[in-house]
Amino acid sequence: MRSTRTSAAPRRGRRTALAATGLVAALALTATACDGSADSASDKPEATTSQAADGGGKVQIPAELAGKLKEHGIDADRWKDGGWKDWDKDKWLSDAQDFVNPVIEGLWKPDRMQSAKEADKTVTTKDASAGQGVSDPAPAPVRAQAERTPYHRNAAPVGKVFFDSPDGPAVCSGTVVKDVDHPGKSNLVWTAGHCVHAGGSGGWYRNITFVPAYNDYGESEAELTNANPTEIAPYGNWWADWASTSNQWIQGGSETGGEGAAYDYAVLHVKPERGSKSLEETVGAALDVDFSAPSAAEARKMGAWGYPAAPPYNGLKMFKCVDIPGRFSLSPALPTMHRIGCTMTGGSSGGGWFRVRNGKSVLVSNTSIGPADNSWLAGPQLGRDAETLYQNMSKTYGGR
Predict the structure, then answer these.
(1) Topology of domain 94-397, CATH
(2) Where does the record place the region Disordered (predicted)?
(3) Which of 45, 103, 335, 356 has the fewest CB neighbours in a 10 Å radius?
(4) Residue 170's closest CA among 150, 195, 141?
(5) Residue-wise pLDDT tens for the chain (400 aa)?
């Protein structure tokens, strides 16, 4: 039964500048319980809240986006009034340069977020055995552990990616990453390609939004009934005004990952639904990306973070798995992927994988595919192709 409690006033006060210390501690001390002082209200960052436009509100779409929609035969006024729900395959924007994601303020309300379904890529037994002779033995399952709350203190860069697909609202995970061309003011989010684009059979998803530190205090569904927006989205909603994924994913991605799985990564450039500060300034944390594609021996341990939404999870809480990585390949012709034991399910897709390098956590992969029994996860190695995608995003859109 859902609770009907009245939510507490939003926790506000002094913002803390974080260096993702929780992630470093979790990776470096995974076998050791970490002590920590109790959270106080003064440690809660100021929230950037969003409010729904009222029934008579007029949602404005910038002229350049309206023009881009018009190029594809889509009326901007109809789009904002619900036309985005029309998934006519002849008008499904597919190519890399076709991305359009105008802000529809108030669309992603707490209830709509909770209704979003997991976006997962499950490989079949046949798929999983395709790389025999290339892949290392399947790892033993690692039970996912709940991240400590509040998330803004222990895993500030991690959040949820919401989007609309032909099947309705969907959800993935994502990570705030640094922008090399705009230090300290990044608006970049790393996630999976299949969280922004349907792959070879479709096109770009719509209404893509990032919510860092979603459900900051890990409250239950009952506790979130009538919750204040700051409890759901302590830093507000951040809309993707541009997204980039690999051509390999756009052309070869499929329901089971397909030939695009080894290139299943994406970078979002986001802007706040309300407010003017950058994402990094608002959250107080962002991670470097490691494009060295380290071997298992070099990496030693990797940790995957995300919000699993398929049973036995419900997408409301953040979890993590830490394991020694192995190699996984769907085909000898494709790059080898990283694989770790992990029981996280769909919804964790796109969530960052981290390793400790020179004493700090860096993003080294993202969750892409896993088996039907949810015993392991695999993610792409981030090498030269991924770095080029990232650099182009930083140079071309980072300053917006």
Answers:
(1) Thrombin, subunit H (2.40.10)
(2) 35-59, 113-141
(3) 335
(4) 195
(5) 333 333 333 333 333 333 344 555 554 322 222 233 333 333 333 333 332 333 333 456 667 777 777 777 777 778 878 888 989 888 888 888 889 898 888 899 988 999 999 886 665 445 555 555 578 899 999 999 999 999 999 999 999 999 999 999 999 999 999 999 999 999 999 999 999 999 988 999 999 999 999 999 999 999 988 888 888 999 999 999 999 999 999 999 888 888 899 999 999 999 998 878 999 999 999 999 999 988 777 778 999 999 999 999 999 999 999 999 999 988 888 899 999 999 999 999 999 999 998 888 999 999 999 998 999 999 999 999 999 999 999 998 876 6
- Whether residue 123 contacts residue 330, with contact meaning beta carbons closer than 8 Å, is answered with yes
pTM given for the model: 0.85
In which residue are the tokens 């419900």 written?
Answer: 314
Q: CA nearest 343: which of 304, 301, 296?
A: 304
Backbone φ and ψ for 390, nearest 5 degrees, come out as -65, -45
User: How far is residue 284 from each of residues 51, 324, 360, measured CA to CA in Å?
Assistant: 23, 29, 16
Q: In the chain, which residue ranges form alpha helices assigned H by DSSP?
A: 21-28, 63-71, 76-80, 110-115, 125-128, 151-154, 221-224, 229-232, 247-252, 279-283, 296-299, 384-397
What residues form DSSP beta bridges with 321? Answer: 304
